[in-house]
Amino acid sequence: MTKIKPFYDGLVLGGGIAGMQAALDLAGQGFEVLLVEKEPTIGGVMVGLNKVFPTLDCSSCICTPRMAEVAHHDRISVLCYTDLVRARRRNAGFEVILRKKPRYVVEEDCIGCSLCELACPYFAPHEFDQGLGARAAIYIPHGNAIPQVPVLDPDYCMLDGNCARACPKNCIDFAQQAEELSVGVGSIIVATGLRLTPMGAKKQYGGDRHANVMNPLAMERVQSSNGPYGHILRPSDGKIPRSVAYVQCAGSRDQSIGVPYCSRVCCMYALKQAIMIRHQRHDTQVTIYHMDIRAFGKGYEQFYRRAQSEGVRVVKAKVARITEVENGDLSLRVELIDEGGRVADIRHDLVVLSQGTIPGWRPEGALPLEVDDDGFFAIPDIAARPANSTAEGIFVAGVATGPKDIPDSIVEAGAAAMEAAMYLDRVRESAGEMA
Amino acid sequence: MRYEAPEKLSEQRRNGDEPRVGVFVCHCGGNISDIVDVEKVVEQIRKRSGVACVTTHQFCCSDPGQAVIEQSIRERRLNRIVVAACSPSLHELTFRRAVARGGLNPYLFEHANIREHVSWVVDDRKEATAKAGRLIRAAVARAARLAPLEKRRIPIHPSVLVIGGGVAGLTAARDLANRGIRVRLIESTPFLGGRLAQLYKIYPTGQRARDVIGGLIREVSSNPLITVYTNAELVEARGFIGDFHTTIRLVPRGATERCTDAQAAINACPEETVDQFNLGLARRKAIYLPYKGCYPSIPAIDWRNCTRCGACLEAGGVGSIDLDEKPREIVIRSGAIVIAVGLNTYPPRYGEYGFGQFAEVITLAQMNRLLDPTGPTQGELVVNGRRIRRVGFMHCVGSLQHEGVHKPMRDGRINQYCSRVCCTTTMHTAVELKTRWPGVQVYDFHEDIRTYGRRHEGYYDKVCRQGVVFLRFDPLRPPRVGVDPKGEWPLVLRTVDRLTFGEELEVPLDLLVLATGLVARDMSKLVDLYRCSVGADRFLMEVHPKLRPVEMATFGLFLAGSVQGPMDIGESTAAAAAAASKAAALLKAGQIELDPFVAEVDTSKCSGCRICLQACPFAATDRDEAARTAKINQALCTGCGTCVASCPCNAIQQRGFRDDQVEAELLALLEAEEPVGV
To answer: What does the pLDDT average to over B624-646?
Structure first.
């Protein structure tokens, strides 16, 4: 485990792709960086994806080397399973209070052998697989997790000591307490990413009631070769779906649920997942019900056309409601714009809701930052200085400043690192002048 | 990248010279193991001579996977490593680092590609397993003969050349200079500011474009670390990462710094021509300033339209104008180059939606000039002498094109891609229009509305509330523009509206604004000089859209902004800052480490015949006249191997690709297959 120093040039909040890239770009310019992640592993949302559009690269093939690079970098320290309590301005930098949550495992001694995990008889829904698979009450988050150290989930643990007996290094510690750390930092980069709108947000879609209405991240896991099933099945009965529907804007561009903006990535991931379904199951029909297809990025329109040429059906229709019918199948009530506005009830085996993207974290006093009415961090000069927050010395990257795809997040992370580097130079220069 | 210091490479000494090859076969989470019978391959390879151990892993590239390699080196005393996994382009570096961490020289590593070359392309399990086996044993044979190599270290010249003086180039220059780095910025036109200077207001902040660009120009022009060259053309480029030499030609500006009364000189000029800055909506003199507050504030002469009559000379005062100055060439040395030459708007062809045919059909960029109070109409909405009352916006002109529907561009290709910014620019412009002239009727003809970005949807929502009428057309049946048969309005647009379930509509208009797409500039010179990769969309191509979005395949070249593809202002500045960050990291390191796979001459065999001098495409071979033998410049050598093949005396060998290594690899590859399934 990394030894935490008393002072860093940059604190990066969030170990997803944007945070990792910002840390690498800042450290690459010679600065010392502390990366703090609230989850037990770095990698963020991206490491759970199957493939990425529009290149159809395997996501973990791109993400895991970044994770390894961050973990092995001489100038980057990583603290996982740690929350930011607060950051207070001190001199030109900040005094940061962090709270390292208890893993109930002595991280320094653990060798990541998984014997505790195998010994544990209690199971819980697997977060990494979006609740579709199971994991033990003590578990390593996933095969590519960094660090490869398990975390004990006290909600499911029965304290019967199986794991402790199995551990060859004697590093299970049921009495471990949260630890507060105080660190000085010169600047802060916030890359706290995203969450999706709740599955039950649109009542008429019944995302929280119908077993075969899935969330798109769960679909990523289902399509992954290292996912819970290994191939595409529907959750209720393990049937191979013959007809899959994507409901676009199921949580975006919708005043009624408080997400009036476009979530920017849903059109593309729906097309990508549809292509992947067609690749795995040539006879499965995939229909995407949409308002607009926003294939705006480099190579995206070409990808949209590729999806259509590979048999993905793209239908302009807003879905009014989803009802469960027999066998767990679903009936979608839609108005078909290109068929004279005919209202139809169309049956599908499996439905994926393209949920909206909402901020992954709200500072609630931990950081002196303002948020806009869309919930994302306010950027006063979004055109000329897109990474500068409302507070001096604090920079923002990735989805924390609004929904964004991976390339745009990576580019913005580079910009945030550059802004932080310039800020640190400026501060040092004026400190030098004073001395 | 950094490897451990040589004294730490203790395992290498301890593990001896006798080959002990460790082979690691990756499942790639099923990507490989679903097709290749990994266990069978392992059994085969285990029997090969020199193989000390064979291990499999779900993801060799993951942290635990890499840890297994490191640990095995120490525990099993390995001194050569083979990883059979994905393409080396993806993870060769990853594994070399793991090997170095394990205590071996990182070049005692060989990568076998059994994913892209096997499991992704071979369907039959038996065949795939056999092919994977062959590739791995070839890698083992080669690995056994590998020798430790050291990276080349090349110093970096501590300055950056930025090509392009628009918002991206200026941002990159400012950021680099703020980090204490010397920057030279070249701009091909006489003035800085690029496309942004021509816009009126920008979304999503509503700022005046000129304020944004003006602020940026002030920061750049006042920074002593930045030298700006305007009217600068690329002539020649030589060199490589760390030491580029770019020759530029500086075209004389005509006016000098002693020109105190620019306006008098301009007024005196008798030659008028089309004002490009106002996109043909106005006229200007042959000596001109594009707009008030431009930089530099010294006027420039447009030599194509200047008759050298000398009228400006007298009006401008002594020494203010020099008509006889000759172009001069200078060489700019730099350690890195940021390319930020931007893009063009799509030029609609004659007759495309009536463009060129009707004065009432203009582009969105021209509309921006009309809205600008400092523009050609002082911000009045008057076209062809008529006060405008009914405006139509036509989306996707030059974007989202289809074969058979749209005529190809000059290179024979259509523009399939989305130009990204036009939808929001249209909404933003419509808001401005409806706010300033609430009585004007606005119609929007689109196939999709792609207001994707932060606050973009807000403009869409606002124009809906302001009463803009949206009509959706089928991309394969775009609307047609004609004259109003009743003669009441200058134009009539006929379209089939999908939103009213296929109703055929005629919309009379007195102005049609074409939301023209964005296209790459003609960058043939640049592409040629720096050997840039160009995509099918004609924009410059990054190495990898996700892993390395602002880097080019040639080391030391970085991309900033819309030279890479359509981007809005915020996206361009972010990309420019990201490019600056990469360039700064390179320069701050002071030196670059390059792979050691260069050619070397065995002078005892060299006959001094000079054949290799002609063969080398990179001018890396030279002749040591005293010794009368060939010699190779290690900084310039790219390891292409051409000289090795051309040498009639077999005197040149390439490190890491020695004849004995390649031979062993080939022999193992061509070996008879051992019987399968017994």
So the answer is: 90
Contact B97 A294 (CB under 8 A): no
Contact B86 A61 (CB under 8 A): yes
Question: Which residue carries 């916030």 as its tokens?
Answer: A190
**Contact residues, chain B, for A230 at CB < 8 Å:** 30
Name the residue in chain B with its Cα closest to that of A71: B63
Residue in B104, B69, B63 with CA at minimum distance from that of residue B83 = B69
Say whether pLDDT at B4 is over 50. Answer: no
Quote ipTM for the complex. 0.95
pLDDT of amino acid B592: 86
Q: Name the residue in chain B with its Cα closest to that of A408.
A: B571
Longest Cα separation, chain A: 78
Q: Can B344-519 and B595-655 be said to share one CATH topology?
A: no
- CA distance to B482, B530, B555, per residue, from B107 (Å): 69, 29, 21
Give, in words, the CATH class of B159-245+331-341+546-591.
alpha beta
> Which of A58, A383, A419 is the closest to B31 by Cβ?
A58
Q: Is the separation of the CB atoms in B115 and B642 below 8 Å?
A: no
Structure tokens at B515: 């939301």
Measured between beta carbons, which residues in chain A are less than 8 angstroms from residue B420? 296-297
Chain A nearest C-alpha distance from B449 (Å): 6
Tokens of A181: 């750390």
Q: What top-level class would CATH report for the domain B595-655?
A: alpha beta
> What is the model's pLDDT at position B554?
81
Give me the residue from B61, B452, B577 closest to A415, CB to CB: B577
Condensed to tens digits (0 to 9), the pLDDT of residues B169-219 reads: 999 999 999 999 999 999 999 999 999 999 999 999 999 999 999 999 999
Pairing mode, if any, of strands B518-520 and B382-383?
unpaired
Q: For residue B634, what pLDDT is reported?
A: 82
Where in the sequence is the domain holding A392, given as residue range(s)? 7-101+178-193+360-434
Through-space distance between the first and last CA atoms of chain A, rounded to whole angstroms: 37
CB contact under 8 A, B457 and A29: no
Whether the bond into A363 is cis, omega within 30 of 0: no
Q: What pLDDT, on a 0 to 100 scale, did the predictor assign at position B259? A: 84
Decide if A383 and B570 are in contact by the 8 Å CB cutoff. Answer: yes
Return the SS3 of A193.
coil
Mean pLDDT of B603-626: 90
Stretch B260-277: mean pLDDT? 92
A262–B29 C-beta distance less than 8 A? no
Distance of alpha carbon B471 from the chain centroid = 36
Tell me if A268 is assigned to some domain: yes
Give domain status of residue A272, yes or no.
Answer: yes
Pick from B86, B180, B452: CB nearest A294: B452
The DSSP element (H or E) to which B285 belongs, if any, is: strand B283-285
How many CB pairs (< 8 A) connect A and B?
222
Structural domain total, chain A: 3
Contact A382 B205 (CB under 8 A): yes
Cβ contacts of A425 on chain B, cutoff 8 Å: 178-180
- Same-domain pairing of A375 and A333: no
Q: Which of B211, B418, B426, B542 to mutate: most A Cβ within 10 Å? A: B418
Which 3 state secondary structure label does DSSP give A213?
Answer: strand
What is the least distance, in Å, from the CA of B58 to any CA of chain A? 8
Please compute the mean of the pLDDT values over residues B485-490 and round it to a whole number: 92
Class of domain B344-519 as given by CATH: alpha beta
Per cent of chain B over pLDDT 70 is: 97
CATH architecture of B1-149+674-678: 3-Layer(aba) Sandwich (3.40)
Least-confidence region, from A98-112, A211-225, A279-293, A421-435: A421-435
Query: Half-sphere exposure (CA, 13 Å, Cβ side) for B65?
Result: 29
Q: Do A415 and B178 touch (CB under 8 A)?
A: no
Tell me how close the Cα of A242 comes to any Cα of chain B, in angstroms: 23
